[in-house]
Amino acid sequence: MLLRSAIHYELVVNLFYAVILSEAKNLLVNVRLTKRQSVSRGFSCFLLFTIHSLFIGVTVPAYVVPEAKGLQPGQKVIATVQGREIGVFNVAGRLHAVRNVCADQSGPLCQGDVFDRIDAEITEDRRIREVLNAGRPVIACPWHAWEYDLQTGECLWNPKYRVRVYAVEVAADGTVTVTM
Fold first, then answer.
1. What pLDDT, on a 0 to 100 scale, did the predictor assign at position 133?
2. φ and ψ of 122, to 5 deg
3. At a CB cut-off of 8 Å and minimum separation 6, what does 77 contact?
4. How far apart are CA 180 and CA 172, in angstroms?
5. 62-179: CATH class
6. Which of 17, 22, 95, 112 would be a feasible disulfide site paired with 142, CB 3.0-4.6 Å?
């Protein structure tokens, strides 16, 4: 029975990897690049390694940000973690972490202001109506006012630009950990 279970397990794992690799191949085929029409071998290997690592339990490193401990709503702190400058923001009691580099001209993004997102919609009578989206914090770069969603890092005026956001966890003792 053990041999049958092991064979069954191996079959399931191989089938699972075949499906995943097939999807990765489709993804690689469908990637559209503006300057190159093919995907580099390094990128292919990186993508396959990333997909593979999701299923073998590879952990992503997390780092304590001591400066962010005790951060109150409305406050921010800019700290260097693993050689990268990041900003940690407390927006209405929820912590967000973002890399301190704007996609425009590498400006100091985290020195900018954080505010609620304002969405616009066109009504049936062809008027523009602005709606405050209080659950979606936005940060604006102080250099050229490029705005980014703090949860996704997506640039509001052009989604092809984004900034790196990091997962943040707060321990029971208030210690803030950022996953890079």
1. 87
2. -100, 125
3. 65, 67, 68, 71, 87, 88
4. 21
5. mainly beta
6. 112
What confidence tens digit (pLDDT) does each residue in 100-148 have?
A: 999 999 999 999 999 999 989 999 999 999 998 888 999 999 999 999 9
Three-state DSSP at 170 gives strand
Sign of CA dihedral 176, 63, 83, 145: negative
| 18 sits in which H/E element | helix 2-30
Q: What are the strands of the beta sheet with 147-149, ordered from one edge? A: 114-122, 128-140, 147-149
Helices (H), 31-82: 41-55
Residues found in the chain: 180
Token readout for 44 is 């292919």
CA 171 to chain centre: 21
Q: Where are the domains of the chain?
A: 2-55, 62-179
